[in-house]
Amino acid sequence: FAADGTAPFRAALKAARPGLARAFRDAMTALDRRLTA
Length: 37
Description:
With 37 residues, the protein is mainly alpha-helical. The chain is built from two helices and no strands. Helix content is 78%, strand content 0%.
């Protein structure tokens, strides 16, 4: 099943608190800046 791996991931994102989501987004932004710099 292709959706087998994405379903738990989506559930985890839904259960994640907004603060955790923001921290993850900030980390991705920092990584993106480092790669593009």
